[in-house]
Amino acid sequence: MASEYEILLFGGGPAGLSAAASIVRQDHKTVLFDSGKYRNSLSKHMHTMPSWDHQDPQAFREKSVKDFERYGSITVEKVEIETLKQREDGLFEATGGGRTWTGKKVILATGVEDIYPNIPGYAECWVSGIFHCLYCHGWEEKGNPSAGMLAEGDTGAVVPALHFARQALRMVDNVTLYTNGNEQLAGELKAALDAAPAPMTVNSKKITKLVKAPERARITLHFDDGTSITEAFLAHKPKTKLRGDLAQQLGCALSPMQTVVVNPPFNQTSIKGVFAAGDCSSPMQTITGALNSGTCTGGGAPLQIQAETYKQRAIF
């Protein structure tokens, strides 16, 4: 037998928790599904977060859930949802772990996951030596002589590569742009630096492996010619994909960047009654951005329910 709720909320990260923090203030019976998989699961510190600077994101999640207890309207299920559909009666039905839940509205805050490049050792250096956002990580490495910037994937073009390298220069004296064997990009970067000089160099050697050095965030790059270089850290934003396929199961429209298309400010998707928040719905993937969109969806879903309860027109 299905457990019945008003709102089915998917995702226990900042966006989902922010949505729940709004929903409880309107007392809607909600179930929050937390798979326990988080993009920042390896991070031990959060930054750019007022009142939570340099603190553990796991503690943030635990404290957020604890705050819901006094309301009594949120149920947290530690389960990974396998299927999600809209039934003929209009309700949404989720199944996972042999159980079923139904709800009037859906909020997707499932996030994204990073697709690591095919470089041995990359995964082992992720977060500890490779930083995808130099606002989230990097300040602690100030004062080092040099850092690296991997120009590959989403950063494998002149403009994004130099964009990341300029940020890294706020922490170190010189940045080397590594193109990992891409000679064409190396030439384009050298031409750009000739036209507009900066304390940056270009290295086009093929990387054979990455090894985390024991000190601080230092990382050693090994090349196919047998040489190696150790940097203070390596900046790189890998490609991402939606975590899970719940949006696809529902048939939500996706953007060219493969995020869920939403209509601000309440972030309803292409399907009425389905909302999306956080990294899964925006290319600007930050904690504070996730909190904002979570608040918006946590307002939109209740407002739609309230209007429909009295057969009135909603504000959106």
From TrEMBL:
* Source superkingdom: Eukaryota
Query: Which ranges carry the FAD/NAD(P)-binding domain?
Result: 7-293
Task: Give GO terms: molecular function aspect only.
Answer: oxidoreductase activity
Q: Does the keyword Oxidoreductase apply?
A: yes
Which keywords accompany this UniProt record? Answer: Flavoprotein, Oxidoreductase
SUPFAM superfamilies given for it? FAD/NAD(P)-binding domain
The Gene Ontology biological process annotation of the record reads: cellular response to toxic substance
- One Pfam match, given by its short name, reads Pyr_redox_2
Q: Which family does it belong to?
A: Belongs to the class-II pyridine nucleotide-disulfide oxidoreductase family.
- The protein, known as: FAD/NAD(P)-binding domain-containing protein
Which species expresses this protein natively? Didymosphaeria variabile
